[in-house]
Amino acid sequence: MRARGFTLVEVLVAIFIFAIVSAIAMGGYNELVKQSDIVDAGAARTRAIQATMQRLNLDFTSLEPRPVRQPLGDGLVPALRADEKGGGDSLVELTHSGWSNPAGVPRSTLQRVAYRVEDKKLIRDYWLALDRTMSSEPESAEMLDGVKSLKFRFMDPNRTWHDQWPPLGYSPADAPWVRPIAVEFTLELEDWGELKRLVEVSG
């Protein structure tokens, strides 16, 4: 008995079913890829936020009482300078220790850094020399995007909180050298909301 072949209708039905199954499979694959991309982006965002918080933490825990000379004149810029309104080009500027030097370049291990928010990006500026001239320009690194604000509070040795540093009441001779005993910073992000950390200043 001779085997019966497929009719045209059967072939068309088979092709139609195969097309539906393929479309469903492809849709599932695309959704899987999409979800994987979302997970990867979320993980990268988390790593960037953690790195930023750690960098802020390290800079403030290693805060050094080393003011820097003003580019013009004999005046001193305080070891830590911050304005509650973010006056000037930066929100906070400080001198910290522990600047790594793997190449053994003849320079100090102290580093002058500043933080600013520009176009919803947190920027960390740093200078190659502590005492700058008018021509000194900082190197800049983008730490994080999606930043709404970065705010600081500083605790003095009497355990009083201040929104600016140096606080009022210190003499011009003492103000450049004084350090807080703790720093609280609040980083507000568009996606994560407010992230707050309290840092104890070493020494």
TrEMBL record:
GO terms for biological process: protein secretion by the type II secretion system. It comes from the Bacteria. The chain crosses the membrane at residues 7-29. It is a single-pass membrane protein. Keywords: Cell inner membrane, Cell membrane, Membrane, Methylation, Transmembrane, Transmembrane helix. The keyword Membrane applies. This is Type II secretion system protein J. It comes from Steroidobacter agaridevorans. The gene is xcsJ.
